[in-house]
Amino acid sequence: MADSMSGLEPQEVIDKEMADLSASYQEAGVEETQPRRDYAPYRSSLLRHPTKDLQQVDPEGIELWAPVFGARDVGELESDLTIQRGGEPVGERMVVTGRVLDGDGRPVRHQLVEIWQANAGGRYIHQRDQHPAALDPHFTGMGRCLTDADGTYRFTTIKPGPYPWRNHHNAWRPAHIHFSLFGTDFTQRLVTQMYFPGDPLFDRDPIYQSIVDARARERLVATYDHDLTQHEWATGYRWDIVLTGSHRTPLESDTEEDHA
Amino acid sequence: MTPTPTPGQTVGPFFHYALPYDGDDELVPRGAPGAVRLHGIVYDGAGTPVPDALIELWQANASGEVVQQAGSLHRDGWTFTGFGRSATDREGRYSFTTLVPGESAPFFAITVFARGLLHRLFTRAYLPGRTDAFLDGLDADRRATLVTTADQDGFRFDVRLQGEDETVFLDFGDE
Ligand SMILES: [Fe+3]
After folding, report:
1. Which of A48, A119, A193 is most worth mutating to test chain B (most B CB atoms within 10 A of its CB)?
2. C-beta neighbour count of A234 within 10 angstroms
3. Which domain does B143 fall in, by range?
4. How far apart are CA A197 and CA A156, in angstroms?
5. CA torsion angle B10 B13 B18 B24 (round to 10)
6. CATH number of the domain that B136 lies in?
7. Measured distance CA(A54)–CA(A204) in Å, rounded
8. Could you read off the pLDDT of B100-158 as tens digits, one per residue?
9. How far does CA A246 lie from the centroid of its chain?
């Protein structure tokens, strides 16, 4: 059944598939903490997920290490997405901060964090984004920073808007910021999305729902933090990120505090 | 109690203005002594090239050593950092200019991201004639998906996300 105007399937078809997959997950009773790569309600995944089992292997050589990034790679100002274009972008200014930890709870120190996002109207500067919302001449929507010695990252940006896409008729993505993260090992590489508390689009979004476990999904939702909110300036959100565990025996330099 | 890892999500369709950067796919300048090409096409389960994938390369240097040097985002033209990125073009092609890792390093480590792929995939691109216990332990047809083919400029390594000749993707025990 396709919508007569858009030629796309209605939301109800996607909702039914998501509900069925959720019910069978509950029934199976085995906890999953990552998205399913095979999640049919996200139609673009149909031909883009492996059908064979992943091959178990112990990481070796280069896989036990991650690339190193430094001050040469990332400018101080790149973490402020509101000052890149010579004027104030439209929207709700906010601070997003948190810690990057490895699977053993250790801070990932001095490592690269990259983000990208739509503007306040839900429009990406990307040429493939045809959503008829305004581009903001003062906003590009991409930023970088390095975590500090405590694993903390911090960005100043504006709150992105939700945006439509063509997975099905009247499909809308909940507001989100894309995050790209490195650990201390190649095996810890992660690209994900951060969401905002209470988004009414969560239940209808097959990308978010591809994580079939409710508690796991909530790990992608930032927390509003009034202590981060700045008087007459910006609201504050906190979001911590946990990577998988390191497979390398930690060196002293990995765990030692900075004494500089 | 150890914390539970944060879930991944797809890189989506709009990463091109954020993740790629000038010189991302040139670990060494083209024409540098020893420069070779590592390239290929990313295919979906229907055999159609994937024009919105991102391949990351992480490798040892020409002596087979792991490099721990900054400078991958702003290359100085002299420091080999071992890391690069290549977004696929309209024909699904990615390409790196790099060095052949030293003998002790049998493979290039590869990460695959794409619109429609909900969580990154890891794989290995082995150099022709180099092997290890893991590669030797695979069935012949599966093994072939991980071995690069030498061509006139360097090495060809296609990635098949799904299907009969699907690439072997790796689980380091964290999936
Ligand atoms: Fe997005």
Report:
1. A48
2. 19
3. 15-159
4. 18
5. 90
6. 2.60.130.10
7. 29
8. 999 999 999 999 999 999 999 999 999 999 999 999 999 999 999 999 999 998 999 99
9. 21
Q: How many helices (DSSP H) and strands (DSSP E) are in chain B?
A: 2, 10
| Catalytic residue check, A49 | no
Beta strands in B10-52 (DSSP E): 36-43
> At B47, which amino acid appears?
G
Contact A165, A11 (CB under 8 A): no
If you ran DSSP here, which 8-state letter would residue B106 be given?
Answer: -
Number of structural domains (chain B) is: 1
Mutate: best of B10, B104, B159, partner A, most A CBs <10 A? B10
Query: Is the alpha carbon torsion for A78, A79, A83, A89 positive or negative?
Result: positive
Within-domain flag for B114: yes
Say if B2 falls within a structural domain.
Answer: no
- HSE (side-chain half, CA atoms, 13 Å) at B137: 7
Best CA proximity match to A153, nearest among A215, A85, A237:
A237
Asked if B46 reaches chain A (Cβ–Cβ under 8 Å), the answer is yes
Pairing verdict, β A55-56 and B170-171: parallel
Task: Give the long-range contacts of residues A128-131, CB within 8 A, separation 24 or more.
Answer: A128/B13, A128/B14, A128/B16, A129/A163, A129/B14, A131/A163, A131/A164
CA quadruple A223, A225, A229, A234: dihedral, nearest 10: 10
Show which of residues 64-103 on chain B sit within 8 Å of chain A, judged by CB atoms: 66, 68-74, 76, 81-83, 101
- Helix segments in A85-154, DSSP class H: none
Which residues have C-beta within 8 Å of that of residue B119, sequence separation ≥ 6? A34, A35, A37, B7, B8, B9, B10
Cβ–Cβ below 8 Å for A49 and B11: no
Q: What is the pLDDT of residues B22-66, one digit of tens each?
A: 999 999 999 999 999 999 999 999 999 999 999 999 999 999 999
DSSP code of residue B9: -
Among all chains, which residue has been given the structure tokens 């689980």? B171
In a domain, B153, yes or no: yes
Asked if residue B172 belongs to a domain, the reply is no
User: How big is chain B, counted in residues?
Assistant: 175
